[in-house]
Structures are given as structure tokens and as C-alpha cells.
Amino acid sequence: MTKTTRPHAFGSLRALLGATAIGVLAASSPAFAADPIKIGVIAEAQAIAGASIPQAAQLAADEINAAGGVDGRKIEIITYDNHSSSADSVRAFQRAVNEDKVNIVIASYISEVVLALEPWAARLKMPFITPGAASNEISKSVHADYEKNKYTFHGYLTSAALALSVCDGAKDLLVDQKHLKTAVIMSEDAAWTTPLDVGYEECLPKIGLKVLDHIRFSPDTTDFTPIFNKIEGTKPDVIITGISHVGVQPTVQWKNQEVPIPMFGISSQATNSTFGKDTNDASEGVLYQGVSGPAVPVTPKSVPFTEAFNKKFGNFPSYAGYTSYDEVYYIADAVKRAGSTDADKLVAALEKTDWEGTIGRIQFYGKDDPFTHSIKYGKGLVTGLMLQWQDGKQVAVWPSEVAKAQLKFPSFIKLTSN
Amino acid sequence: MLALQILIDGFAISALYALGATGFTLIFGVSGVLNLSHGAIMVLAAVAAWAAASVLHVNTYVGALVGVAAALVAAFATYYAVVQPIQKSRRIANEEKEIFVLTGTLLWGIMIQELIAYFFTNNAKTVLPIVEGVVDIFGVRTPKNEIFTAVVCCLVIGLLWLLVNRTRTGKAVLAASMNPRGVTLLGLELTSIYVVVWGIYGILAGIAGVLLGMFLGVSSYSVGPLTASAFSIVVLGGLGSVSGSLIAAFVVGYLETLTAYLVNPAYRTIPALLLLVIVMYVRPQGLLGRR
Q1: Which of A237, A354, B17, B110 is most buried, with most CB under 10 Å away?
Q2: Average pLDDT over every residue of A120-127
Q3: What burial letters (b/e) apply to A265-296, b meaning 16+ CB within 10 Å?
Q4: What are the two backbone dihedrals, phi and then psi, of residue B134, each rounded to the nearest 5 degrees?
Q5: pTM, to two decimals
């Protein structure tokens, strides 16, 4: 297990300059007398979704420290690269707790990793928040054994909520506007998609989209030709996606094969600002669910955050960057309210979180809710957005309050109801 | 309709597998080296082509050439920095050299993989196809790029056959694979034959990598599976036998495509691996193996 700095293509020099700048800033910022509040950040430094996690956390910490810290205490971010591995994550977690003496941990966008860390948070009594994993099991375990698992918080939407968000968007955009009637679900075989698919199967028929087929494929798949051909054979009006480990390859093959059916749903890699470049603009027309997006004013904090992030790191944050940034802020808020970094007091304070972040208003479901410690989904809280890649940019198309554009598809897409 | 679809898709993927495995088996046949950095070199070629096109903004053809050149450089680097020092070393016992080469190339491959992930992230990259669009072949909508991939693979394999069978250098390479000692007795420098073979290998792996990047896309995660697939094709065909590898590539390619279409895309690789196990039991030397 190694502690790392942020690796990025062509960003090393910039990072070095940035680091120097932080050093100068730190030297000139107010003197902090008391012990720092240490936040351990365990993330997938080589994956685009994961790389934003420590960066956004550091940005939030720098802002808080520049404003005087929390009751005179500085926030210190300690980062660990988990190489997308559960085993490495557990070692990093142990090291963060036992050697680096962190007060709280922010970790990972991969459900399998978070589910591996959850028992360790219980054993070591260490508050722990995930900025990007989605599996329902994370918060269900907290509900099932609250006293033991109460240290885990789910700082992102559950798969169940993600399915609802996609269905809410699909109803307005596809059913009401375009009169589409049928769908095929296409999802990768992973911990987070099992509950997502259950959610899709349940909510799609309710909004008026009949599910014709359901294709689950291995996350190692590289050739999507047979999958698209199979889907086309059933003649659906839309493909509802549940993909995260894959993204670039199915999108490029969808375009190269000119599959005439639009893709709509969860496509985590499409949330990355580099997705257009990675796919040579095969991304055009892809519709994906997000919690935020560049230049989308979900809250007054969203756009200033993306601009500050872009200025500092030269790219836009992944979805887990938004949540990670918010997490550092509401952790600071919880420490302030608790007046302590004691684990149990911090958990109690976090449960009372009511924080307007970059993705909406953050509150956690309580002990009696089946998704204990997961962020609440709904109007006035976090609802998510639907975005579309148009002319090389990610633009919001739903909900109408933030939508900047109408749906637009490449010429090979035939938008019809069969 | 479905049969034609399987025929077309299976052919493209098989041709690509064949090209990828040819270089791998050639190196083994001539110099006895199992190059486990094979997948890394293919991915490097694709990522270099992608980077040249989308970061340096060169056109697709130049990008593809950059990719092949990168693989060529990497192949020579593998030979001079990893393989040759082990083969020439006096401190490593002769009978242990093979295992040292195996470990050395494996580690070298991991180093390349990690460097790619460090500089370009582990997200998949795709190379912009040289030909875009689709054509209708008796009702099967086929990307032109898929046809292009198959044609280039067949052409390159054909050129390799001409080189080996019709040129002096090629004949020396062939002779070295049959009887290295005999070749040295004829006054030919074995080392220079190795250099030629590594050069041919680099070009083959580079073209296969760039085509793979255009056809399916690659990421640093592809390194292991690509080496493994070349390895199993070569073992299935018979170690060191180029024609055996070609046949095995088509067997594996079509078996995978049939499984994906007729059974389930999630089980695509399983039947080919089962076949490999069966062949290992019944005919350990592979389909066309000599030893």
C-alpha cells in the first residue's frame, strides 16, 4: 500500500506547481494551534471517476483552511491509492486508522470495495463515507445491525434511488415528449447493478415503458457486437443502461455499428469530462444520469466548485468529485456541531446533517428507514439530472428547472416507437 | 441472417486474434522466448495511436503509424533490456534461463501496464477508425472498420508468409526455428536473426494493437487478457507453429462468437478455455505442434 500524490496525464507539472502554490498558501494562512482534523481519502487514483475524489477533497479542505479551519483546527487530507482493489483498500483503511490516526475516512466509488470496508469501519469504530458507490447493501447493512454498522455513511444515491431517478427522467423525456413505448435493459454484472435492475424492472413499466428483454453481461466484455445485435433483434425504442466499469467501449461500438436505438440511463464513464475524447466523440447523443454537471447550477455552489476544480486540476470533476467535495464540508460542519472528533459523537452529528452541497440538499435517512445513512432522494433534496453529450459537451436536459437544451441525436438514431 | 452475422463478426475477431498470436508464436518458434509482455506491447501501440491523434492532433494514418512505431521500439526494448541480458548472463544457469525470461517479460509487461495507467488512466481508449460508416452485406449491417480490420490482418499475414518463404532473410529465420545450431554452422549470426524476428514481431504486435484499438478499444486492464488469449491460442495451435496458431485463432474466434450469439454474451470465453483443457489432455503438443 502506498500513499500517493495524484497521477494524471500531462498533469504532473501542473500538480507540482499547484502543490507549491498550496505550500505557499499554507505558509501564509492563519496559524492553527490545535490538532488538525485528519480525513483519510482512499480512492482509485488511476481511474477517472476515482481520481477526482482526493482532488475534490483537497480543494474543499484548502477552502475551509483558508477561511480559518474548524474552531481553529486545520483540515488535513491524507490520500491512499487503492489500485481499484478491495484488499489494498482494507490495508489502506487499517493504516489510516492505526498509523496515521485519521478521524474519518472517505473511500471509493466501487461498491465491492465499500462493502469490504464496511465491516472494518465497524471493527475499528471509524466513521466512513463513500462518495460514489451505489449498492443498496451498503445502507441496508447499517439498517440491519445499526449498533455495529452505524459508522458507515452512504454519501451517494443508492442503486434503488438511481433507478428512480432514471425512470423520473425517462417519463418526461422519452414517454411524454417522444412517446416511446418499449425498452431493453442492458447492464453489467456487478454488485451495484443487481438492485438497480430490480428498480428498473419495477419502475419502467409504471412510467409506460414495456421491458422487452434484459441483458446482463460480464464487466470484462470487450466486444459488444453480439449484445447490440441481440438488442436490435427485439426492436426496442430505447436501451436503458446500467454501466460503470465499461463505458467507452460499448459507446464507440454503438456508434461504429450505427445501432439505431438511443442509450439512456446510468453510464458512469459518460460523467467524466474526458469521455468525449476517449471515445473520439462517439459519445454524441448518449444520455446519462448524473448528480451534477459542468455549468449546471443544481445549487448556487455547483458552478463555483466546478470552475475552481477546473482551474486547479485542468479538468472537470467526475460525479464522485462533487460528492467528495460536499463530504469534506459536511464533515467539517458535523465536527463543529459535535465540538469533537470522537467517533460516536461524530456519527450522531453526521446523522443530523442538513447541508446544501453541490448536488442538492444533503440529509441522511434515519435508523428506521431501510436505507439507513444513505442520502435522501427526492424533490428539495437530491433528485439527480439527465445530461446528454451534445457537440462534445455535457448539457443538462432534465429536469426543466436546470435544462439548457433539447434532446439531440446523431443521424443514425431512429427515434420512433415500435 | 444470424448465421451470416456470426460468420462476418467471427471472421473479423478471428483475423485479429490470428495477427496478434502470429508474432507471439514466431518469437517462440525462433528463439524459444515466451514473451509475456505481449499484451502490454499491443496496448501500448493502441494507446500511442490514440494519444497521437487526440493529444497531438495528428491525422488517423499518422496516428496509426505512431502506434506501430511505439510497438516496434517496445519490442526492441524488450529484447535488448530484458531478454538478451538474461540469455547472455553467465550467472544464470542455462536450464533456468527460460524461467528467468518468462518472469522478466512478465514484470516488464506489468511495468508498461502501470506506466500507461499512470499517464493515461485505466479508462478505455479507442483509436479513431481509418474508415468509418457501415455497409449492408445481404441484410447484415457491418461497420466498414470491421471489414478493414479483417482485410489488413489477412494482408499482413500473407506478407509475412511471403517474407518467410520467399526471401533470404525469411529463409534464415525459418532455418533458425528448425535448427539454430545448423544456422550458425552455415555462418549466419544467430543474434542478427533474433533482432530481425523481434523487429517483425514489433510490427505485427503494433498493427494488431492499433487495429484492436480501432475495432474494440483497449485499456490498461486489457494487458493480462490479451497476453492470456495469445498464449492460449498459441498453446492450442501448437507452440511455435505459425499455421497451428492461425487455425487455433479461427477456432477460438468462432467459438467465442457462437457462444456470445447463441448462448449468452457473459459466457463468451468459457467454451474456448474448456477446449484448451481438453486439447491439453488429448493432444498436449497442440493441434499442429511438433514437440
Answers
A1: B17
A2: 96
A3: bbbbbbbbbbbbbbbbbbbbbbbbbbbbbbbb
A4: -130, 155
A5: 0.85
